[in-house]
Amino acid sequence: MTVRRFATVTSTPGGGTRVRRVIPGAEYLRVFAVAEFSGLWAGLLLSKAGDQLARVALAVMAYDRTGSAALTAVVYGLTLVPALLGGPLLGWLADRYPRRELIVSCDVGRTVLVALMAVPGMPLPLIGGLVFASHLLDAPTRAARIALTPDVLPAAIYPTGVAINGFTSQLMTLVGFAAGGVVVALAGPSPALAIDAATFAAAALITTLTVRRRPAAGGDGPARSWWSSTNAGLRLIAGTPSLRNLLSLALLAGFHVIPEAIAVPYAHSLGLGDTEAGIMMAAMPAGTLIGVFVLTTFVPARSRLLLMAPMAVLASAPLVVALLQPGFVMVLVLWGLAGVCTAYQVSANAEFVRIVPNEQRGQAVGLASSALMAVQGLGVMLGGVLVDWAGPERGLAIAGLAGLAVSVPPLIGWFRVLARQMGPGRVLTGARPD
To answer: What InterPro entries does its record include (predicted)?
Structure first.
């Protein structure tokens, strides 16, 4: 058996070089050795698990009580809409108040709100209001957690920490619904919601015990109004070429989400059933998991910045092959490859947060997260319109071609940013921007 050995070459003070052997995956151990990150990660894991469990429980509860698919969809939608509104409305809280205390307060608030949902006989309209309020609190929690990550991790392993969080989110998306379905089937919706409340309580406790208190990033100066803070965040992103191009690359997710949105009609057009449609829906998230693992384990951080923009472009390319009407297995391969390419989002996220000034990090992250949610929602709607107009294969191919075309400007813009920051020669050698 051949064992591959990996190494990094670093300069010595005397002008020579030193080779340091690196065990693949060792950075993961270094990241989890940081107790504060482990606490933040555990909180993320519990929150994601609770969110997925709640979505299943609420959908089942709504349908059992009303028998209406439309009302069930409305209740389910109340778990998604707050994520779009919460970033601009509440992201600034992560800059104005201490981030650990904000995370704990929001988790405690969600514990109470979800516990009220679990009360047997709670009227459905009231549950809808509680759902909306609970998920609205997720926005400042998410902004604070993301903004805290660069503070708790050394710069050298920060990108790996972001990758771990992205991997965790993708994994929970994949397995959360299935696990939630089992829990709801065995225990029922109300007990499942009680379990969800317990996950938020546990997340609050873990964060309190593992993350040390820090002062508010915005300092003790005069408080900005919501509008002033939002305006400042928008100006920062629009006026900083690196942030503007990173966000543009991230927003290409609006095209990359389309295959999952049209998987059911696409499967039916191939003469397949709902089981195959479900497998197709899982192909891209599974590919993303693989891509994130490979990218963060075997590719140096500086090289990820160079690969980021090409991967963003290539993520749309497999969708164009739908014109050739590939079979089920080839569709899985193509969508899986597209998912592998979307792993660039982890690098874009890490670099975006790294560049943003600490005192504006929460607001900028909140705005970017909401924009990402918005384009994904638009992508889902666009996919449906294209399928109705052109059919699944041609509709997906059109979306892929559009994604390729739209991705060219941020591709060029990002390489201009790298060339300006590092110089063309350093871009070619993969040096990290200053």
So the answer is: MFS, MFS_trans_sf
